[in-house]
Amino acid sequence: MRLPSFRERKGVFILMWKYIIKRLLWMIPVLLGISIVIFTIMYFCPGDPAASILGNSATPAAIAEKRAEMGLDQPYMVRLLSYLNQVFLHFDLGDSYFQNQSVMSGILYRLPYTATIAFICILLQIVIGTPLGITAAVHQNGLADRICMVIALAGVSIPGFWLAMMLVLFFAVKLGWLPPYGVGGLQYFILPCVANAFAGIASQARQTRSSMLEVIRSDYIVTARAKGLSEREILYKHALPNALIPIITVVGNGMGMMLGGTVVIESVFSIPGIGMYTTSAINNRDYPIVMGGVLFLGALFSLIMLLVDVIYAYVDPRIKAQYEGQQKSWRRRKKANG
Amino acid sequence: MNANKKGTPFIEVKNLTVHYTSEGKVIHAVNNVSFSLEKGETLGLVGETGAGKTTIAKSILRILPEPPAQVDGGEILLEGKNILALSNDDMRKIRGRKISMIFQDPMTALNPVMRIGNQIAEGIALHEKVSGKAAEEKAKKMLEMVGIPGSRYRDYPHQFSGGMKQRVVIAMALACSPDLLLADEPTTALDVTIQAQVLDIIKNLQQELNTAMIMITHDLGIVAEVCDNVAVVYAGEVVEYGSREEIFDHPWHPYTVGLFGSLPDINSDVERLSPIAGMPPDPSNLPEGCAFAPRCPYAAAECRKAAVELKSLGGTHICRCIRQMEAVQAPGAGHN
Amino acid sequence: MANSAAVSVKVRKKKESQFSLVMKRLSKNKLAMAGFVIILILFLLAILSSWIMPYNYDEMNMAERFAGPSLKHLCGTDEMGRDIFSRLLYGARASLSLGFLATIISTVIGMAIGSVVGYFGGMADTVIMRLVDILQAIPGILLAIAISACLGSGFMNTVIALSIGGIPMTVRLLRGSIMGVRKMEYLEAAQTINCSVPRLIIKHILPNSISPIIVSVTMGIGNTILMAASLSYIGLGVQPPTPEWGAMLSAARTYMRDYSHMVLFPGLAIALVVLSLNMLGDGLRDALDPKLKK
Q1: Least CB-CB distance to B122: which of A2, A227, A316?
Q2: Which residues of A fall within a CB distance of 8 Å from C246?
Q3: How many CB atoms lie within 10 A of CB A55?
């Protein structure tokens, strides 16, 4: 029950930093890939941005001139490379076609809304979903289990945007307790967050339950019981730490779902977040915003997954050992070279 | 049963019966098993895989998964007190303290995300009501006792080999100096060279602590090495019981004889081993009469009619067979 | 030869018994059977909708606009006076076939890629798994939105948009389970008797990694239906006048304050289908992996 000594902890920290830096570097090709994929999709989108900027009255000559000005007449490879150059070497996501604003500042302006929703949702998912799953697993096939699982089953089956509409009908229109849409104080976030988090809570509960059930059947739980520990101690000291390891991944993936869910939820509640920014840009064919938005959310998701992996490695000694192994082999190599 | 007449035996199992329910089928795992054991003694439970040996051990510790398992009847008397009737809280005080168990598979018996030292110290802190520091000291001592340096206290199970893990499991089982040790095939998962070491460790510690031990195994070599008494288990029943000498020198039951027949003997120049023909019976559909009758070369019509009772053969030796005389081929093999 | 024939008969018998064992376990699971029956009924209703719907799905009746649920119109009427119940029945065709088609397409493609990648490993594995990483870093709904914006609306385009997003998951799943069985000894045994590689994959590897796929397909159909509904809700995907459920919700959104029945019933329909698929999927998972159940 002694805490790790300073030296031990320092060792792990250095390893972790190395790993984190490696993963951050690995994000560069992933983001490059995302940019190429999304650029290509947008390239093949029908419609001519130049024509829509100039409006219906524009002459073909004026449109051609505008196209040349925007570089739209260039071949695919040239445009792709210049986009990648602009994004990755100048950290510039370009300018919106229709709004007099750079995409980056548009995104940063909207980030707080999306981030708030995503953060509250993930918090709700963990704080409500995990205990629900544990309760269900501990009382397997009992009443509590059935109730939890019915809630969870409903949660993963109901479309989030529909639930949002129903919540609005009930709490905003009928009872008048909460605002139906828009942004403002915290009360504006309640309905969107509940609607968006429900699926996450449900899948968290389901995963926690099945992970717990699997762990409860392990031999080492029998060992713990044979030692004379109480069921409570077995649950919290032996079962839960093991069950939580796979659940961390679920939380990470849930973040991806959350980010996707906010895209739709923002449009239900007219919240000016990144999702709304991106989807309405698709309808307006404002491609720089679409590409920037997707790239930004992709980067955000990659960062979250990195965080998940770091936590994972910190919790599971087997994975931590892999880094230690790496370091040892690295040292050996250094010795052999030196 | 046991001819020990000193009064109540240390542990006595009386008519233990356990069944499992699986997908609507009832599996009779343990049927009317009785035996007893004194402190410092070792009893070997011998039989094929699936004969119900592990179920017997787990019922003594009351760690059977219920459901699907259910104890239907019988008593397990620890110093005269029926532990099957104890409350869960009282039973917890016995587990790990008075009775503990070494599990078969060391690979899965340890919690993968907990330091091995803590896994040992946990039980000590619980039963001996000592501080964390003292428990850690004792756990280190236990590690050293099974031949693992105390400096590895803070390692995790994945950092150990199979044999080392089994030693950790042994250290854990013996940490509170239990009065009864249940060793469930403690060496099956190990290499032959390590088997001997692990067996030595168990034997020495047992002698040191004067622990009673039930050794579950299908390896007659281990029985010969560590056991005082032997119970041969077949299809959830004790078919023969006796001292090591009685069983090894004068095996009576055709099944026991068969077990010895399937053992290689370097001293005789038999060209091939004689395995027991056939398969153990389906425990959800046990034959009427003697369970071994379908595989028994000496079975007669009467064997298949009614259940066979245990009969005394003199000494502590008892056997569940009505055709003993025919079963023993070598003249003069039986008792007189 | 006669001997090998006997062996193959025996093997087939064992396979059948395994299949029937799974079916037996599944049939004991009431929730799963309920899900299965509901899906079956919905399928029948969707197929027969042309004959059994009380009104034509696009028959307008301006005199009865926004009528609430009644015996005449079970789920009420919409802003054009069209019978919502009939539209839901007919719309089941679009929603169900979207979900099934997109999931099956993505699973087949994902399985092909996943099994090849998982079996051969090496360079192909590295490259394709990096691609999978990239595709998975984009939130699924955003990818579907972008692709369907590019392809335009319409049934087949929506199917394609939805299936592309599902491929990476199947690849990952199958690759993982193949990597798991690849080192098993029975594969070596198969190799020693000169089993060709495609045969090895199809006959020996796939059957042993199929159960997670079956479960993920069942659950995947539900998810795809949810995603399709979200797409139509945003204004992409299948468009009105085709009575797809999500599109109906999208159209009803303007009137939902005053005529809540217009959003209630299409949403319930979606929830019912997805719920049934999830119940069936849960049951299948338990039946295929009995150690999780008991």
Answers
A1: A227
A2: 159
A3: 7
CA–CA separation, C192 vs C186, rounded Å? Answer: 10
Same domain, B23 and B60: yes
B neighbours by CB contacts (3+ pairs under 8 Å) = A, C
pLDDT grade for B262, boundaries at 50, 70 and 90: low
Say yes or no: A173 contacts chain C, CB-CB below 8 A.
yes
Q: Quote ipTM for the complex.
A: 0.81
Same domain, A275 and A183: yes
State the pairing for strand pair B81-82/B318-319. Answer: unpaired
pLDDT > 50? residue B53: yes
CB contact under 8 A, B96 and A321: no
Helices A187-216 and A130-138, axial angle in degrees (round to 10): 30
CATH code (residue B284): 3.40.50.300
Position B200 in a domain: no
Q: Report the pLDDT value the prediction gives residue B331, as an integer from 0 to 100.
A: 41
Q: Is A24 on the interface with C (CB under 8 A)?
A: no
Q: What angle do CA A118, A236, B179 make, to 5 degrees?
A: 165
CA angle A34, C141, A258 (to 5 degrees): 100
What is the span of the domain harbouring residue A193?
110-337
Q: Cα torsion for A135, A305, A119, A191, to the nearest 10°?
A: -70
Residue A222 to residue B103, Cβ atoms within 8 A: yes
pLDDT at B332: 40
Tokens for C161? 């948009």
Write down the pLDDT at residue B229.
87
**For residues A124 and A141, what is the distance between their CA atoms, to the nearest angstrom?**
25
Per the domain annotation, does C9 fall within a domain? no
- Please tell me which residue, A7 or C194, carries the higher pLDDT value: C194
Together in a domain, B234 and B305: yes
> How far away is chain B from the Cα of A242, in angstroms, using its nearest Cα?
7
Q: Residue C276 has what pLDDT?
A: 92
What phi, psi does B218 have (nearest 5°)? -115, 10
Which tokens is A54 given? Answer: 């100039």
Cα–Cα dist C212/A22, whole Å = 32
The strand ranges marked E within B179-310 are 180-184, 212-217, 229-234, 237-243
- The structural domain count of chain C equals 1
- A98 within domain boundaries: no
Q: Does A290 touch chain C (CB under 8 A)?
A: yes
E strand or H helix that includes residue A25 = helix A6-43
Provide the number of structural domains found in chain B. 2
Q: Is B302 a residue whose pLDDT tops 90?
A: no
Amino acid at A131: P
The per-residue pLDDT for C4 is 44
- Helix (H), strand (E) at residue A140: none
Q: Which of A36, A60, A92 is the last residue of a domain?
A: A92
Q: Are residues A195 and A274 in the same domain?
A: yes
The pLDDT mean for chain B works out to 79
Give the residues of chain A that fall short of pLDDT 50. Answer: 1-3, 6, 338
Q: Compare all CA atoms of chain C with the CA of B23 and give the residue at the minimum distance.
A: C25
CB contact under 8 A, B112 and A318: yes
Q: Quick check: A227 and B96 CB within 8 A? A: yes
Same domain, A44 and A124: no
Q: Which of A298-302, C148-152, C272-276 has the highest mean pLDDT?
A: C272-276
